[in-house]
Design brief:
Blueprint (H helix, E strand, L loop, with lengths): L4 H9 L23 E11 L5 E12 L13 E5 L12 H7 L12 E6 L22 H15 L7 E5 L1 H12 L7 E4 L8 H15 L14 H14 L3 H7 L3 H15 L5 H9 L17 E6 L11 H5 L6 E6 L18 H10 L4
Parallel strand pairs: 3-4, 3-5, 5-6, 6-7, 7-8
Antiparallel strand pairs: 1-2, 2-4
Helix pairs in contact: 3-4, 5-6, 5-9, 6-8
């Protein structure tokens, strides 16, 4: 059953976390929250890649628009929008994303497309460690997330095909998993702000440091804390400020020591109270098994891959995407140069920058 507008508004207000807090996180109610429909689908006895089973895996989602079926009875207008680490179903209702894409005549016009915005396992109001299992919750990864999304779509929403999958950050990585695991399920893929390799080097290092920072806080108590381990959560969020930052914008907007320190204090005051320590550990560690590099040739549909040159998490000097895009038959990679419009890792949500490229992808992937 759809929830009230006030309920969706509150979801928007808590959409900040490890990767989204500094990437154009929603700060207020917008018009899309007033018409989005909220739903839940429960998968019984969901088995995770570790072999663990959860008797009931609850998945939350929002939808905008109306599903349509073609003459053969297949869904032909559904778009799956995948949020970043620590986000929720409302994250991509952020105005810098939704106001640019969802309106009349825009690339994802909701009078034409059926938009589906899930909250992944461990996030939003989907099943997560803080529901009661704490560190006994199954150790999910991106493969589990994608498989649960596919079950929710087909069995819960009766969507058997997707016009597009667009994913940001963690959703970007899930898009690659989707393209390899279900290559016929979608017409196009738009992964924004990620790499298609195992998370190693500095990317894994800072995630590992954030996780260990929480675990090393005596208040964590092996995950059975009575109050949140604030010291550990604060340290993890301090790393997130750096990881999600855009140096040009930070220098421009905080040009003095006082302003820089004020930004940190205000950012932490906003984000730290929204974090559950166990949930954080799980969703940051969910990337541990990710590595689509060996099977990129399985992706058959047109793919638009966009990274930004000021992205700390996916630095351009690695040169990985430029090489790997050659392995994807219909892939196109764009490295956005640093400009006054880019926002570091958060450029993935700033749709005005890449809107025209998305329009091109939708045109080239149309059914003839």
């Amino acid at each position: 059953m759809p929830r009230t507008t006030a309920r969706l508004a509150s979801l928007l207000l808590v959409a900040s976390s490890a990767f989204t807090a500094f990437a154009q996180a929603p700060a207020h109610v917008n018009k899309w929250a007033t018409i989005a429909k909220e739903g839940f689908y429960t998968i019984p006895n969901f088995k995770f890649g570790t072999g663990e089973t959860l008797p009931e895996l609850k998945l939350q989602y929002l939808t905008l628009g109306t599903p349509h079926k073609d003459a053969a009875g297949h869904t032909d207008n559904a778009v799956l929008l995948l949020h970043g680490t620590g986000g929720n179903a409302s994250t991509l209702l952020s105005p810098v994303f939704s106001d640019v894409l969802f309106g009349p005549g825009q690339p994802l016009d909701i009078t034409k497309y059926y938009l589906i915005l899930p909250a992944d396992i461990g996030m939003g109001e989907s099943s997560k460690p803080s529901d009661g299992l704490h560190m006994k919750f199954p150790a999910y990864d991106y493969d589990d997330m994608v498989r649960s999304q596919q079950i929710m779509l087909t069995e819960g929403l009766h969507v058997d095909h997707l016009r597009l999958i667009l994913g940001t950050s963690m959703g970007c990585m899930q898009s690659f998993v989707w393209g390899e695991a279900y290559p016929e399920f979608m017409d196009a893929l738009a992964p924004f702000a990620c790499q298609a390799v195992e998370l190693a080097g500095r990317n894994r290092m800072w995630r590992y440091m954030a996780i260990q920072g929480i675990k090393n806080d005596p208040a964590w108590m092996g995950g059975e804390y009575k109050t949140e381990p604030i010291q550990g959560i604060t340290f993890a969020n301090e790393l997130s400020i750096i990881a999600g930052s855009a140096p040009l914008q930070m220098q421009k907007n905080q040009p003095t020591r006082e302003l820089a320190e004020k930004f940190v204090d205000q950012s932490l005051a906003r984000s730290v109270p929204t974090i559950d320590a166990n949930n954080y550990i799980y969703y940051v560690n969910a990337s541990r098994n990710y590595d689509p590099s060996k099977h990129l040739d399985r992706i058959k549909v047109p793919l638009l891959w966009i990274n930004s040159a000021d992205d700390f998490i996916n630095p351009p000097e690695l040169g990985l995407a430029q090489k790997q895009i050659k392995e994807i038959p219909k892939g196109r990679f764009i490295l956005l140069p640093i400009t006054d419009a880019t926002r570091g890792h958060g450029t993935h949500t700033n749709a005005a920058i890449w809107k025209d490229d998305l329009i091109q992808l939708m045109k080239e992937s149309e059914k003839k």
